[in-house]
Amino acid sequence: MTTLRMSNKNGETAVNLEQVRPEAKMQSIALNAWFGSKQALKDINLTVKANAVTAIIGPSGCGKSTFIRCLNRMHELVPNARMSGQVLLDGKNIYSKETDSVQIRRRVGMVFQKPNPFPTMSIYDNVAAGLKLTGTKKGQNLDEIVKKSLQQATLWDEVKDDLKKPGTGISGGQQQRLCIARAIALQPEVILMDEPCSALDPIATAKIEELIVQLKNDYTVVIVTHNMQQAARVSDFTAFMYLGQLVEFDDTTSMFENPKSELTEKYITGKFG
Amino acid sequence: MHRLLDRGLEQLTAMVFNMGKVAEKALAISIDGFVREKDTSGDVHELSEILLSLTVEVEEKAFGLIAKYQPVASDLRIINSYMKIAYDFERYGRYAWDICFIRKRLGGLKDCEEWIPHFIEEMGEKVLQMVRTSINSLKNQDTDLAKAISKTEQEVDEMYFQYLDKLVKEAHVTGQCTTSSVLVVRYLERIADHATYIAEAVVYIATGQKITLR
Fold this sequence. Notes:
heterodimer, A: 273 residues, alpha/beta, six-stranded mixed beta sheet, four-stranded antiparallel beta sheet, 11 helices, B: 214 residues, mainly alpha, Methane Monooxygenase Hydroxylase, Chain G, domain 1, 0% strand
């Protein structure tokens, strides 16, 4: 146990640093990524803390989405794409030869920009789809898992009487929460969100933001967003990326009150360009 | 790149700088009137009322900018600090009026021994210098000038306690002189505190560092 001895007027107190400092859930070490000959990420070293929301901000094309796609080995699915460096999940490199990429994607789920429920499936089947495909939940009560996932995604009360209706028959905001429920059903440890609210109206956005803050109790969340106010509202830590590089990483309050880099200051105050 | 927020910030800055001018004038007239036994209460009251209404205007403008643009980083630090500085300027005005009121209500320093008006004049000049420094450091975003206020603030504090100690030892000072002078010296010491708050805000705007200069 790491302890820090702090003095106050009542004497000395030992503080357990492991309790006050969230653990690293994921870590990128000297991470580089390319699409063909174009380098999209340059030497990214970033720690994602457990049970916290980490926001990645930066202008279009800065490498935000590529970065989170490297966190669950989705980058390698793109033709001609490659990477170097390491990504650690609980201290183990997810790119080591013995690691199964499917297992990694199960542990590190992804929610995309546009809600993308399976169009031919019901609400129920959308949530259960991942479990049925992986076959790992055979013998377990699917109904219970579907219900729990929809509850965690704060969608249950709105769809509990319509579980057999098509997943595409609900509103955009509800569809996005359905996609979050689908990700949760696989019981991931980390949820990556790539601009999850950019296709939603302000009310649906507010619901997702509230959900993101709740989700960190059980999961580690990384969100890519173009909306800086959204990053400020929901995240505990913020990373600013520019031209494939990590410019600044700090706790969100410090980042939005007193950024250290002039480039960050210019970007978040809208003085870019 | 010119942003929609910039126009609002320019207007807010102009309002706060204007308050600085009014506040400095109010204090200068008030302290001078008190030391030289002149009735300046009419002018000072008017300036103090202007400062009061300008504080409300600054607050409304600042709230409007926050609501419309959700500013962050240096923009947010400026708006937050200007709201506080507007309050400090309003307090300058209020103390200016209080000093006039003491002279009107309690008779000021007319029954005091000679050293007392001199002492208050000297302390008043020092405090006015701090007020001017606070305003100039704000206008020029000069953090070195802002930090330099710390030394004068210490001197004003020392003068304040020096004065109280001396009064306690001087048994022959009248009740009227004691009450008037102690209140005014106390107001001067508080004005110096507000000048220091402004200097701290200047440093915060420029660097994001919250420092204490007192």
